[in-house]
From TrEMBL, chains A, B:
Protein name according to UniProt: 2-aminoadipate aminotransferase
PANTHER family, per the entry: HTH-TYPE TRANSCRIPTIONAL REGULATORY PROTEIN GABR, TRANSCRIPTIONAL REGULATORY PROTEIN
Keywords assigned: Aminotransferase, DNA-binding, Pyridoxal phosphate, Transcription, Transcription regulation, Transferase
GO MF annotations, alphabetized: DNA binding; DNA-binding transcription factor activity; pyridoxal phosphate binding; transaminase activity
Keyword Nuclease: no
Protein family (similarity comment): In the C-terminal section; belongs to the class-I pyridoxal-phosphate-dependent aminotransferase family.
Length: 477, 477
């Protein structure tokens, strides 16, 4: 290995480990030359290599800066939406069955001790699980005989108060009496959908959409209609308006913040437009906001609830992505459908276990949730940047990417000839998992897309996995 | 207080505390006279009073025995089923909405720090919660970063193995691959019903039936048809056959062991008859067997699964009544509907939390579940006997009772003019809760019935509450 390559690798490693954060300036050429005891020429060579790898960029008269994938990737690599834009070929409502593919994917991810690029879940080692378990233990000791009847729906009052407080602090209008504790956001979404629509009804979703939305529709025997969704602006409101004009839509399910898989944060103006369009037709909006705390920007983004004047937004969220996945604590704020959702919660699972509810409430009240979140946000933002740079480095020409503004998944469009199900199988044989694009739609538009999870710490193994993936893609393209 | 009354009270107390168990002989008149230093005449007087209270009975040439409510009450106080036997007035399928009443009842039970005769749940202080929490803590410590993806449906393999082992040991044929871990039996029942029937379908249930069955039907927009159910033999198979002849039945939901509220154990021959009748018409049977471990007899009773040759029995159970309610671990063995139920589990709540699954598995493998169960069974049997005797003592003539053969609830038929909803309100005002009969049916047949929970230790407060209830009933009758 040449000297300049060695230096470039060291710098890459430093960026990966967060020594230099996205947007930060790296040492000047002169400084680096002194620090590493190498010539100016070697440093220039190394920095050029870093630039070609997509890890740094030069700014005139300023020096070299760690590239911020979040800020730059959208403009560079905006994924095309679909072979057929919605305006040209009207989407057709379809009965749904994507759960088989999703379950088998999750199973193989579990079965193989593989690189978890395909996991839909955040790296649990970042969670403050030790602190939360301590609260749970203390509660279990305090209450010799915890009764199932405690904390029946709507749920533990203190937990509800803590959730309401966080919303209020972030400018989201909230009435604590509206909050119903559920078993993760999955149950919140299921109950919300059942509260507003009947079997056979048609529900509008984003395309691509988070598959849990399709699952909820499938479970209740409803039909989904996919609406083109822009990787930066979110659901195409024009296209949705056309769909509404053409047929009866019972509900619209969206993920306005850090959508899985696209990662966008819908601009405020468009959130408002969406709420107003739906309100004009009295169509309930089911808002999945599980990534609300995982923003890369300055502040927590607004929600559809901020623009809801008619109680038509059923807001669903959970702690599973930001605090603890194993406690399975989620909630719904179902607007005017509160009574129905509460009743359905009772019918569906009777109650959410009490100790986890109280443990989370205690943690929120007494512990460092905000500190934890600041750390996680920084880590994810950093790792988004590294993952973006690595895909750019290892994947063949014609590859495009999302520019996640929060959350922990990257959406990658491969050259059109690549079948992500074949890639998935080939990767699995090499102990690498990916999320094939077909999980996110009932249409065939995302066959050459994959979703990559960047929540896990970046290691040499991850890098090797990404290189292997890139090689496989190149061979298939 | 007279001397013989004092002695009678002491003996009553001894029975209550389990000094003398149901079926045991109490000291002879001569022994008692010596032990207590009172005359033979006083003892005879006291024993006569005990007999009139229903606490002991005389057996010719043998002496006085603690009355076994379980063995004797059925013959003495067999509740009438309904004003209109099913054979005369055909039951009419009805859309269901009993959940409002049930939820408000549970709420008032929680809100009032009241005598919990109305609670549907067992006294949690009998659970080995300390041991189970220890296992959970050990697991949480062992697995720094428990992943949500572990123990996806069907569930933790070791837990499934332990459940299968218990069935096998009790003569229930079971294939571990059939077991799917759920969030309590509530979810198992919901998923089972959704797997076999569609909205609008008609489902046959017992009358009275455990309200969770009605909830499941209500949740899925189905219709329930109630079939007369005998307090000792279970669902009236003749009446069910007539219903099946008359209309299409999508499923039949029953609780063959220690039915809530009736407490019967369906005889084996009738279980077989029921399975055969349903199999002849290819009708799936959803069997709720949550009280399977709480038998008063010699051995665990058989299940409908024992007679199922076509895979039409969907067996549902949980640990919530016998080990821990707060962990919410249940399961389904759905026969030929296994694939559908597993998929619905995934769609409904994604996964059952992993730590509780593993904690229960560890407890089952390493701890004293059987010893715990032997204790609980003895306690419940004793307390069933005491509760029966006390109702007999304090309630007015015309009161009849079930003879529970397991579980922890007593079903009481009050004189016909008593409205149990009014009784419920009046009792609540005196900090006593009861389960009003109307929770167990959509028909008006059980307005003068109540369900009483005898799982809590018998105290002076319980006795006072029962006396108050008896007085209220007498006044209303």
């Amino acid at each position: 290995m040449k000297l300049y390559e060695k230096l470039a690798d060291e710098m890459t490693e430093a960026v990966r480990r967060g020594v230099f954060a996205a947007g930060e300036r790296i040492p000047s050429v002169r400084q680096a030359s002194q620090q590493h005891g190498v010539s100016i020429k070697t440093v220039l060579h190394a920095y050029a290599l870093l630039e070609s790898r997509g890890i740094v960029e030069t700014r005139p008269q300023s020096g070299y800066f760690v590239r911020d994938a979040v800020a730059t990737a959208a403009a560079l690599d905006e994924p095309r939406l679909s072979r057929q834009p919605a305006a040209q070929t009207p989407p057709v409502a379809a009965a749904v069955d994507v759960s088989r593919l999703v379950l088998s994917t999750l199973r193989s991810i579990r079965a193989h001790d593989a690189v978890p690029l395909g996991s839909p879940y955040p790296d649990p080692s970042l969670f403050p699980w030790r602190r939360i378990n301590q609260y749970a233990n203390a509660i279990a000791r305090r209450h010799a005989s915890w009764n199932l009847i405690d904390d029946l729906p709507p749920g533990n009052p203190e937990l509800i108060r803590q959730i309401a407080r966080r919303y209020a602090e972030n400018g989201v209008p909230v009435d604590p009496d509206e909050i119903i504790i559920t078993l993760g956001a999955t149950e919140a979404i299921n109950l919300s959908l059942q509260a507003v629509a009947k079997p056979g009804d048609t529900v509008a979703v984003e395309s691509p959409t988070y598959y849990a939305m399709l699952h909820a529709i499938e479970r209740l025997g409803m039909r989904a209609i996919e609406v083109a969704t822009h990787p930066v602006h979110g659901i195409d409101i024009e296209a949705l308006a056309q769909v509404i004009a053409r047929q009866k839509i019972a509900a619209c399910m969206v993920m306005p913040n850090f959508q899985n898989p696209l990662g966008f944060q819908m601009p405020d103006a468009r959130k408002q437009q969406l709420v107003e369009l739906l309100a004009a037709h009295e169509i309930p909006a089911i808002e999945n906001d599980v990534y609300q705390e995982l923003y890369f920007g300055e502040a927590r983004p607004s929600t559809l609830k901020n623009y809801d004047t008619k109680g038509l937004v059923l807001h669903c969220a959970s702690f599973s992505k930001s605090l603890t996945a194993s406690y399975r604590i989620g909630w719904a704020m179902p607007g005017r459908y509160r009574t129905q959702v509460e009743k359905l919660k009772f019918l569906n699972t009777l109650t959410t276990p009490s100790v986890p509810q109280v443990a989370v409430a205690d943690y929120l009240r007494q512990d460092g949730y905000d500190r934890h979140l600041r750390h996680v946000r920084k880590v994810y933002r950093q790792q988004a940047s590294i993952m973006t740079a690595m895909v750019r480095r290892f994947f063949p020409a014609g590859t495009r990417m999302s520019a996640p503004q929060g959350g922990y998944v990257l959406w990658v469009e491969l050259p059109e000839r690549v079948d992500s199900m074949r890639l998935y199988q080939a990767a699995l044989a090499r102990s690498i998992t990916i999320g094939p694009g077909m999980m996110f739609s009932m249409r065939d538009d995302f066959r050459h897309f994959i979703r990559l999870n960047y929540s896990y710490p970046w290691t040499a193994q991850t890098e090797a996995a990404l290189k292997t993936l890139g090689d496989l893609v190149a061979r298939m393209a």
